[in-house]
Amino acid sequence: MASDDDPRRKPRIDGSRQWEVFLRERSAEPMRHVGSVTAPSADIATEQATTLFEYAASALWLCPADEVRRLGGNDLAEKGRVESTADSKTGVPQR
């Protein structure tokens, strides 16, 4: 989860919340992140996401940004260090 100092956890001036938008263009394709919207409620966020992305989507998912765990940069670098210590024969991480 996001830390307490994460800007996604701090209320916006108007009380709005950031929502992440994921879509699937065709049923055989995976969901992919396409952007975010800012809205005070799930209903308004749904309306905004639908207006912006429905034309391209067979499925549209919406979730609060502060409920999404984002990995990148240092998070992935740490993961790489753990994997680099794996046993070369078995591939099992060594502790």
Write a structural description.
With 95 residues, the protein is α+β, with helices and mostly antiparallel strands. The chain has two helices and three strands; from the N terminus they run E-E-H-E-H. It has a three-stranded antiparallel beta sheet, with helices on one face. The longest helix is centred in the middle third of the chain and has 12 residues, at 42-53. The two termini are 25 Å apart. The relative contact order is 0.18. The model has no long low-confidence stretch (mean pLDDT 76). It holds the Pfam family PaaB. This is Htur_1727 family rSAM-partnered candidate RiPP. It comes from Haloferax larsenii.
Query: What overall geometry do the principal axes of the alpha carbons give?
Result: flat
Arithmetic mean of pLDDT: 76
- The helix-strand sequence is EEHEH
- Strands of the widest sheet, in order across it, are 2-1-3
- Uncertain ranges: none
Any idea what the radius of gyration is? 18 Å
Question: What portion of residues is helical?
Answer: 10-25%
Secondary structure class reads alpha+beta
Amino- and carboxy-terminal Cα gap = 25 Å
Give me the count of strands: 3
State which percent range the strand residues make up. 15-25%
Number of helices: 2
Biggest sheet record: 3 strands, antiparallel
